[in-house]
Write a structure and sequence with these properties.
By secondary structure, the chain is an alpha+beta fold. About 55% of the residues lie in helices and about 15% in strands. A hairpin with a 4-residue loop joins β2 (about 45) and β3.
């Protein structure tokens, strides 16, 4: 049961938000919010700090949807293009660069692997410290101990 719980825990994806727009005063925030709403992308805005956050799992989709209207976001830099083909080419180049040159700890699979390794270590320690001595006490006779 513990192994099943650890595997389930390692696969849970909690909503984690990352910044999409650093300074909302520099862009058309209503236009960006409309695109995110229409694409059903989870976001929230921090009015006090003038920032817009999107769900980390949907951040690439948000950037693609915004590139369709000519806004390319390379956090914290925002570029607006009149030519949509140029905007999409720039976004594709940015995404490819992130995929190949991004830090290892920011890769989407990294946290899941760490959780599985931690769960495996917990199970091994449990087996060696609790289950093995209990089985030895039950199975071994007094003479073999």
């Amino acid at each position: 049961m513990l192994a099943i719980l650890i595997v389930k825990w390692s696969r849970t994806d909690e909503s984690e938000y990352r910044p999409l727009v650093q300074d909302m005063r520099l862009v058309d925030a209503v236009k960006i919010a409309d695109v995110l709403d229409k694409s059903e992308i989870d976001y929230f805005s921090d009015v006090k700090n003038h920032m817009l956050y999107v769900n980390q799992n949907q951040s690439v989709q948000a950037r693609i949807e915004l590139a369709k209207i000519g806004i390319v976001i390379e956090y914290p830099k925002i570029s607006e293009y009149a030519d949509l083909h140029e905007a999409y080419a720039q976004l594709s180049e940015n995404l490819e660069h992130e995929k190949t040159h991004g830090p290892l700890h920011e890769q989407p699979w990294f946290l899941r692997v760490i959780r599985l390794i931690m769960g495996g270590i917990i199970i091994i320690v449990l087996i060696l410290s609790v289950v093995r001595p209990a089985l030895a006490a039950v199975l071994l006779s007094e003479d073999e101990k």
